[in-house]
Specification:
Shape: globular
Strand order of the largest sheet: 4-5-13-10-11-12
Number of strands: 13
C-alpha cells in the first residue's frame, strides 16, 4: 500500500521544514475535516457485523499540550524581530532587537514594530497559506484551534508551542446585519459586524494578550529565565480584564492601573476575580499610562500596553479571520472604533501582510471612528494631517476609547494613509442612538460599536459608502460589559438626550383585563 500523509500531520506541519524547494498547493480534500474519523473499506467488523472506523485519540493520560509536543515536527525556519517605527532616514538602518529583548522604544525614543522575514514566508504561495490556515479553524489541536495561533507563522513564529498561553480565543462570529442594513441604511445588503467581543473576557483585547503573555511565559521559563516578576498595564477596562485572565491561566502575577470611577463595574470585577493586583487611581487613562511607564522602568514588571507592539501581532489576526470568513474575498470597507489607536494599525498589518504574501490581491479602505468627546485623531485628520494636538478626553459612554493622548497615533496615520482611509466622529447621542437601533435589530452592542455604527450612518448619508459596498463594522467588546448605559438610555435617564429608541418596561396591574388592554394597544402599533 502506498504511503500517505495523515491529515493530522497537516495541522502540525511546519512549512519551513519542507524538503521540496517548490511550494506545493494543499489537496483540499485532505483538509476539509482533518480530525474526522473515516470508514475504511477494509475496516474491522463489529460484533453486530457492521464496519467501523478506528478513532485515533491521544492516550487518556496525555493532555493536548503534551500531544502537541509529542507530534511536533522540525523547528520552523521563520523569524520575527523588533524594528523602529516608522523607519527614518536619519536613524540607524541596522537597529533591530530580538523579541526576547525587553524593550519598548527605539534609541530615538520612538515606537517599535514587529517585522517578519517576509522573504522566507514568500517562498510559499498565497494558496499554501490559505489552505493551511483554513485547515486549522475550530480544532482542539494545540495551539492551532485558537483564531490567533492558527496563524502562528504570521504571529510569533519562533515561540515554542509549550510556552503559548491560549484560551482558544478568536474565531469570532461575523454577524450579517441584514435588517439594520435593509431598513435603516438605505438597503445595504452586505453589511457585517465582526463580533470580537464574543471572546473569553468579552473584548478583542484577548487576541493581543495571548501573544504578549505567551512571550512573557517564554521569557520567564528556561533557558531564558528572565527576572520578570509580573506583567502590568494601564487600562480603561478591557485591557486589564484580558491581561488578568491570561496571567491567571499562566500563573503569572498581573498588576493593573485603573482610572477611578471611569470604568464599568463589569469591567472592574474581571481583574479582581482573576486575582490581579488592582490599583484604582484618581486620574484618567493617560495619567495611568504615564505612571505604568515610570513603574515598569524601575521594577521587573513587563509592560503590556499597546506601546508594546507584541499585542498588535495577535490583534491583526482578526483581519485575517475576516478574509477567511469571506472565503478570502476582500471587503470594501472596515470600520474600527479608535482610542489608543493600536487596533486600526493591527488590522492594516493583517490585511497588508495577506496582500504582500499573495493570499489576497488588495486591502480594504479603513475607517477609524472616534467619540467626539475623545477625538484627537479626528481633529488631526480634519487638519489635513498637519496639526496633531493631544487633549484631555471628556467623559464618554464609549469609555474604553476615552483617550486624549493615544500612544499609537503614528501607527494609525500610516494605516489610514496606506488604505485611503477616513476618520469620523460620533457625539454621545449619535453613538447611543446607533447602539440602541442596532440592538433593536438583533444585536447587543457596546457603546464603542455604537461609535463605529454612527460613523457608518454618516458615511452612508454622505454617499461615501455605497449601498452595495461590502462593509464590516468591528465590534470590540460585548454589550454585557456596559449594561448601565443601556439601562440609563431605556429609562430616558440621560441628561440632554432624547433617547428616541428607548423601550422602557410597562408597569401593568396583575389582572387579565389590564394585560389585554396593554397588549391590544401594542399590537395595533406594530
Amino acid at each position: 500500500m502506498a504511503a500517505t500523509t495523515s491529515s493530522l500531520s497537516l495541522l502540525f506541519a511546519h512549512p519551513g521544514s519542507r524538503q521540496s524547494s517548490t511550494p506545493q498547493r494543499f489537496d483540499r480534500s485532505h483538509l476539509r475535516f482533518p480530525l474526522r474519523a473515516r470508514c475504511a473499506s477494509d475496516g474491522g467488523a463489529s460484533a453486530s457485523g457492521s464496519t467501523t472506523a478506528t478513532r485515533h485519540r491521544r492516550p487518556a493520560e496525555e493532555n493536548i499540550r503534551e500531544e502537541a509536543a509529542r507530534l511536533r515536527g522540525p523547528a520552523t525556519t521563520f523569524s520575527a524581530w523588533y524594528e523602529p517605527f516608522p523607519p527614518t532616514s536619519d536613524g540607524d538602518p541596522n537597529e533591530r532587537y530580538s523579541l526576547d529583548d525587553v524593550v519598548y522604544r527605539s534609541t530615538s525614543g520612538g515606537l517599535l514594530d514587529v517585522r517578519h522575514d517576509m522573504e522566507a514566508l514568500a517562498r510559499f504561495p498565497g494558496s499554501y497559506w490559505r489552505d493551511l490556515f483554513d485547515s486549522r479553524v475550530g480544532r482542539t489541536t494545540w495551539p492551532y484551534g485558537s483564531g490567533v495561533w492558527s496563524k502562528k507563522e504570521f504571529v510569533l513564529p519562533e515561540i515554542d508551542s509549550d510556552h503559548i498561553v491560549s484560551l482558544f480565543e478568536g474565531n469570532s462570529n461575523l454577524f450579517w446585519a441584514e435588517r439594520l442594513g435593509r431598513e435603516h441604511l438605505g438597503g445595504m445588503n452586505d453589511l457585517w459586524v465582526k463580533q470580537c467581543g464574543i471572546s473569553h473576557t468579552g473584548s478583542f483585547k484577548d487576541l493581543g494578550m495571548t501573544a504578549l503573555v505567551s512571550q512573557v511565559n517564554r521569557l520567564r521559563r528556561a533557558p531564558l529565565s528572565r527576572p520578570i516578576n509580573g506583567v502590568g498595564c494601564a487600562s480603561t477596562g478591557d485591557t486589564s480584564a484580558a491581561l488578568s485572565a491570561y496571567c491567571a491561566a499562566a500563573g503569572i502575577p498581573a498588576i493593573v492601573f485603573l482610572p477611578a470611577d471611569r470604568i464599568s463595574l463589569q469591567q472592574l470585577i474581571q481583574p479582581i476575580a482573576n486575582g490581579a493586583t488592582v490599583l484604582s487611581l484618581d486620574t484618567d487613562f493617560d495619567g495611568c499610562m504615564r505612571l505604568i511607564r515610570e513603574v515598569t522602568a524601575e521594577l521587573p514588571i513587563y509592560l503590556a500596553n499597546s506601546l508594546n507592539s507584541l499585542r498588535l501581532e495577535g490583534q491583526k489576526t482578526a483581519a485575517i479571520e475576516i478574509l477567511q470568513q469571506f472565503n478570502w474575498q476582500v471587503p470594501d470597507w472596515v470600520i474600527i472604533p479608535g482610542g489608543n489607536l493600536g487596533n486600526i494599525y493591527a488590522f492594516y498589518k493583517g490585511f497588508e501582510m495577506c496582500r504582500e504574501l499573495g493570499l489576497v490581491d488588495r486591502v480594504p479602505r479603513l475607517v477609524c471612528a472616534q467619540a467626539a468627546n475623545a477625538n484627537p485623531l479626528y481633529r488631526y485628520y480634519k487638519s489635513g494631517w498637519t496639526d496633531f494636538k493631544s487633549l484631555v478626553a471628556e467623559t464618554t459612554f464609549a469609555s474604553a476609547i476615552q483617550i486624549g493622548d493615544p500612544v499609537s497615533i503614528d501607527r494609525a496615520v500610516v494605516a489610514l494613509k496606506a488604505t485611503d482611509g477616513i476618520v469620523e466622529e460620533a457625539t454621545e447621542e449619535e453613538l447611543m442612538d446607533a447602539t440602541a437601533l442596532a440592538d433593536l435589530t438583533g444585536m447587543f452592542a457596546c457603546p464603542h460599536t455604537g461609535v463605529a455604527l454612527a460613523a457608518l450612518f454618516k458615511l452612508r448619508d454622505q454617499g461615501i459608502i455605497g449601498t452595495n459596498d461590502r462593509t464590516v463594522v468591528v465590534s470590540t467588546a460585548h454589550g454585557l460589559k456596559f449594561t448601565q448605559s443601556k439601562i440609563d438610555y431605556h429609562d430616558k435617564n440621560i441628561k440632554d438626550m432624547l433617547c428616541q429608541y428607548a423601550n422602557p418596561p410597562i408597569s401593568v396591574k396583575p389582572d387579565f383585563g389590564s394585560v389585554m388592554d396593554v397588549l391590544q394597544k401594542k399590537l395595533n402599533e406594530f
